[in-house]
Amino acid sequence: MAASTNNHNTGEDDKLLSLETLNNRLSPDLWPEKIPGVTEYEVGKHSKNAGTPRWLADLEKDDINLLQEFGSLTLSQLMEKVRGLQNLAYQLGLEEAREMTRGKFLNILAKPKQQR
């Protein structure tokens, strides 16, 4: 009966056998970095530059501040801001129409007559 027990144990041992190899470059948990924090710094440094969209990189500081201001508004505050911008655009349109009419009456936009 002891012989059958040994055969049974070797079968169990074969199930527990792992063919995985340990590599110190692939296992930061087993082999921590020599200077703590260097890996996180390097990843963060590259992700900031690589993750910044082109349109965001071209913005000026005032534009970024305005985006942050709009981002901090509630939905109702943002809708009020949009209504204000629509009203401003409408007023500018009316003013432009008045100035164009004025220019037409003053003949500012007329083409100069060619002399022969």
Q: How much strand content do the residues show?
A: under 5%
Q: What structural class should be given to the helix and strand makeup?
A: mainly alpha
Number of extended strands = 0
N- and C-termini, Cα separation: 127 Å
The number of helices is: 5
Percent of residues in helices comes to 55-70%
* Main beta sheet: none
Q: Flag low-confidence runs.
A: none
Please give the radius of gyration in angstroms. Answer: 37 Å
Broad shape = elongated
Mean pLDDT: 76
SSE sequence, one letter per element: HHHHH
Question: Would you mind describing this structure in some detail?
Answer:
This protein is mainly alpha-helical. The protein has a domain at 60-107. Helices cover 65% and strands 0% of the residues. The protein is built from 5 helices and no strands. The protein has helices at 2-16, 38-51, 54-57, 61-71, 75-105. It is elongated and about 110 Å long. The relative contact order is 0.03. The model has no long low-confidence stretch (mean pLDDT 76).
Task: Break the fold down into its secondary structure elements and pairings.
Layout: H1 2-16, H2 38-51, H3 54-57, H4 61-71, H5 75-105
Keywords:
116 residues; mainly alpha; 5 helices; 0% strand; elongated
Summarize the structure.
The protein has helices at 2-16, 38-51, 54-57, 61-71, 75-105. It is mainly alpha-helical and 116 residues long. It holds the Pfam family LIN52.
